[in-house]
Design a protein that fits this description.
10 helices; 14 strands; 3-stranded antiparallel beta sheet; 3 domains; 8-stranded antiparallel beta sheet; PH-domain like; alpha+beta; about 50% helix
Length: about 350
């Protein structure tokens, strides 16, 4: 297969709207779930109305519906914010369909993603979307960044990579003994480190992600506690019995949301830090290079900030998307941490202009 020519575009508002629209259309499950929540609140209001206070019960139901509408608005608003961060106005993005990888270059650096790590590549409206393993993140790009012929070739490359055992090879590598995988890691140059993920690394990453989700966990925990306390108060006659249905729904939703969040974090860690897979971090003169099962990523020094070590993990923020990358702490020893910190500070002081990797 011969690679297609590189296509480069400058992001405008139409691109942002197109990608956002595609994300919303692919989030139907979330909206269906919120619709179920509205139905549950209506049922709870009906049950409460049977106790003799229909106006109060339906008032609570109406307030709950308003809350769901606010949640939908917040979800779409948050997605719009993420799209604007990932695809900033005026930024140049390039995409190349090569023999072995899907190459994406943006203002923050470059990604070389192997075909076996990609799935479900499709065009939705004015955007193109693909799922990236092992994290199963859904990447959205402006549709005009890739033509129909290149898209068809990319879909075929993904199919062939899957058919010849690309994902099977990745699974076999994940289940191989750690020593065998370590031997497969190429000898690292200076200022480079490699590790093979263990169960301990997964625990560290899981704890770090849950700490980052602390505010959300606290909200769900408070809602659950309030719901349980309200149910107890209603059962003893302190609160009107017509609030029992509403409080029962609030309690159930809080518990379900807590479980879903914890399970989602656990699954994300298990996919991203699959046992037995290797990750290499290299400090190049112009960028931080990360190589793992999913391919290679280069992050320009002047696009990094906020380096922190906490709880056995190291985090750093990337621009312009303002996302936070998390590394297992043992991948970055004190010497490498100091070198990364120094290079970020040096790039910020010198005001190095963003440039193409």
């Amino acid at each position: 297969m011969s690679g297609f020519e590189r296509r480069t575009i400058t992001i405008d508002r139409r691109d942002q709207r197109a990608v956002l629209g595609g994300h919303v259309r692919q989030s139907r499950r979330v909206f269906v779930l919120l619709g179920v929540v509205v139905v549950l609140f209506a049922v709870a209001a009906g049950l409460s109305a049977l106790d003799g206070s229909p106006s109060s019960a339906w008032g609570i139901a109406g307030g709950s519906v308003c809350l769901v509408v606010v949640l939908v608005t917040l979800l779409i608003g948050n997605q719009a914010l993420m799209v604007r961060r990932q695809l900033p106005l005026g930024a140049e993005f390039s995409l190349t369909v090569s023999d072995d990888t899907l190459d994406i270059d943006g203002p923050g650096g470059a990604d070389r993603i192997r075909w076996r790590q990609l799935s479900n590549l499709t065009r939705v409206g004015g955007g193109v979307y693909v799922t990236i393993a092992p994290s199963n993140a859904r990447l959205g790009l402006p549709g005009r960044l890739i033509g129909d012929d290149a898209l068809a070739q990319a879909v075929e490359s993904i199919r062939l990579a899957d058919g010849v055992g690309g994902r099977a090879d990745a699974s076999a590598r994940a289940s191989a003994p750690a020593s065998a995988v370590a031997d497969a890691v190429p000898s690292a140059p200076a200022l480079s480190a490699s590790i093979v993920f263990t169960a301990g690394d997964q625990r560290v990453a899981r704890a770090a992600l849950l700490r980052r989700s602390g505010p959300l966990l606290a909200v769900f925990g408070v809602l659950g506690a309030v719901g349980i306390a309200g149910l107890a108060a209603g059962a003893t006659g302190i609160l009107p019995r017509d609030t029992m249905g509403f409080l029962a729904v609030v309690t159930a939703l809080a518990v379900v949301c807590l479980i879903v969040l914890v399970v989602a974090v656990s699954r994300a860690v298990s996919r991203t830090l699959a046992l037995g897979t290797a990750q290499t971090l290299t400090l190049a003169p112009d960028a931080l290079e990360l190589t793992g099962p999913g391919g290679e990523t280069r992050l320009l020094w002047n696009q990094l900030s906020g380096l922190r070590r906490a709880g056995g993990a190291v985090t750093v923020k990337t621009a312009p998307s303002r996302t936070t990358l998390l590394f297992v702490g043992r991948l970055i020893d004190d010497e490498m941490y100091a070198a990364i910190e120094q290079r970020i500070e040096s790039a910020q002081r010198s005001g190095v202009d963003s440039h193409r990797v």
